[in-house]
Amino acid sequence: MSDSPKGGLCEDNLRVQKYVAILGISLMSMKFIAWLITDSVSILTDALESIVNVIAALVGVYALYLSCKPRDVNHPYGHGKVELISSSVEGVMIIVAGIMILMQSISRLLDPEPVQSLDIGLILIIVAAIANYIAGRYAIIKGRANRSVALVASGKHLCSDTYSSAGIIIGLGLMLLFSHMGYDVWWIDPIVAAIFGCVILVTGAKVVRDSMNGVMDRMDEQIVNRVIEMINLKRHDHWIDIHNLRVIKHGPMIHIEMHIVLPLSMTLIEQDREFNELKDTVISEFGEYVDLILMGESCNGNMCRFCNIVCDDRKEGFQSLIEWDIDTVTDETEDHSEHHFP
């Protein structure tokens, strides 16, 4: 168990986020140059979203810097939850970018203006889109591997920028093609921008929803199932039952709490040995970025049918081991008879 998330995963997340911020500033400059060359509202909306990307990336850098700080008296669980604030801000900013794009699209539909030098503008936007997508996917993969919601949010932000850029590239490509054929299809530019403005709004809403789930400590079924898989794989006969499992994520740190029922005749030294076995099992899966709290409970006689060890205090015969699944291990009670004997 680590008292501080500093180093390793945390510094890795911060380093990637810094790269995201530097890339965002570079691509924003490229997109504004493309807009000045073409006067395309689609490219302008893409550039406006890049402003949001840069602000969000800088917020993410600061959030990840704070999350790396060790826990202290005032923050006993560390500073990891600041990442949820960062990802919430990013989600709101994505939504703001989508609204800005829709407003610009409607304005251009009502007041059309000619688009110029599309070929040069398209090349710049294509280069920016490719760079955005590669960086976004890398940030998402790293963020999920390192359990960083802020980094995942940054990656999704970059990918949403890529999707809007892809639509703009298609729309402007069609405009370029039809203009060479002698057709006036100016309306494609704002229509394409409006469509992808809506896509960006949906992406932002999903990022905000995921952030709120983290703030509300919604159960992460993926982590819970990994814990269940581990304890089933390395199960001891003395582990009569495990229940009341709780998992909370604070940045890269995972806080796990569970209750374990042990035989009534077991001494404190023997209980401590079983606790260490269980702790080693959990840490072997999640590494040092886990804070594990085990609450020991002695069998009170109503668990005999689930226990197959030899015991002088047995009150009834053994029937079957408890099948640990997401229903039984998250149950707050010891008696799981309804799961086994309807």
How would you characterize this protein structure?
With 342 residues, this protein is mostly helical. The chain has two domains: 9-215, Up-down Bundle (Alpha-lytic protease prodomain-like); 221-340, Cation efflux protein, cytoplasmic domain (Alpha-Beta Plaits), CATH 3.30.70.1350. It has ten helices and three strands. A three-stranded mixed β-sheet has the order 1-2-3, with helices on one face. β2 (253-262), α8 and β3 form a beta-alpha-beta unit. It is elongated. Residues 1-6 have low confidence and may be disordered.
Uncertain regions: pLDDT < 50 for 5+ in a row? 1-6
The CATH topology of the largest domain, please? Alpha-lytic protease prodomain-like
Average per-residue pLDDT, rounded, comes to 79
| Name of the CATH superfamily of the largest domain | Cation efflux protein transmembrane domain
Assembly level:
single chain
Q: What proportion of the residues form beta strands (DSSP E)? A: 5-15%
The count of β-strands is 3
Rg, alpha carbons: 27 Å
Q: What overall geometry do the principal axes of the alpha carbons give?
A: elongated
Query: Treating each run of at least 4 consecutive H or I residues as one helix, how many helices?
Result: 10
> What is the helix fraction of residues, given as a range?
55-70%
Helix-strand sequence: HHHHHHHEEHEHH
Give the CATH class of the largest domain.
Answer: Mainly Alpha
Number of structurally distinct domains? 2
Q: What strand order characterises the main sheet? A: 1-2-3
CA-CA gap between termini: 40 Å
Main structural class:
mainly alpha
Characterize the largest beta sheet: strand count, sense, and whether it forms a barrel.
3 strands, mixed
CATH architecture annotation of the largest domain: Up-down Bundle
